[in-house]
Design goal:
Its main location: membrane. It comes from Paenibacillus zeisoli. The chain is mostly helical. It has helices at 7-40, 58-65, 67-71, 73-96, 104-112, 119-129, 136-143, 161-186, 190-198, 203-214, 216-231, 235-240, 252-262, 266-295. It is globular, with a radius of gyration of 24 Å.
Length: 297
Amino acid sequence: MFGTMSYNKQKTIIIVSFLTIPLLLLGVFTYYPAIKLIYYSFTNWDGYSPEKPWVGLANYREVFSNPDIFKVFEHNFAYFVMGVVQNIIAIYFAVILSNRLRGKNFFRILLFLPYIMNGVAVAFMFGYVFDTTNGSLNLLLGNLGLSGLSQTSWLGTEGLVNYSLASTGLWRFMGYNMVIYIASLQAIPRDIFEAAKIDGAGSMQTLWRITLPNMKPVIQLNLFLTVTGALEVFDLPFVLTKGGPAGASQTYVQRVVETAFAYNNYGLASAMSIILLFFVVFVLLIQQLVLNRGGNK
């Protein structure tokens, strides 16, 4: 069969054959559910009834007219702040562990290990860390003489709970970002650093003038992951606080899941999911605009 075909035809058939199954899987498990989600957002479906009453834009009007729904985005802000701190720390460790340092591979593995741990297991572990009476954090603060902080309810205080939860994410994902930054640093030609050293550039000048500008695409990628991760947080508050105290740690995704599975309002939950998608895209476009404008100056 292939013997009578030209090389270009054989090449085309092989490429199409290899792409068919991945594209089919992508369509079945990504695009088809997305289309159904958009359809459900215009209905008043309860999740199990065969009838799906069409309500038009009523679900979207409900989302935008209910201030309690958008108010939970304030709780996601803590995850964004800790995500930025996480990237700064990751760059710091990446720069240090890219130099000639004895045992650097051991420290790389040590910092990366939290990322491979199960998210639910991490959440339960930090539940013991943040425990008010017997938690290791309060015990450490008490031994350090900080008795005023040793009885703090880290997961029960409205102003602290989101930052406490977000710090768990910082501990878990910092090593992952560090590995990405190390790979970016290793891609920068060594000749540039040697030339800067010959010209008398100091460590900070090298960092600001050479290292960070060459890492800009990777920094943008990690900021993209930080923003999307901050807006889509679910597992940590769900496991540790169930959205408490009094809804102070409930995230937008938690509200979506609650709307769908607790109140059986899949139509409204679908509309909330679509709005989250557009909100993520909007925030990322603003981020790219700001970063690109800053880089063109």
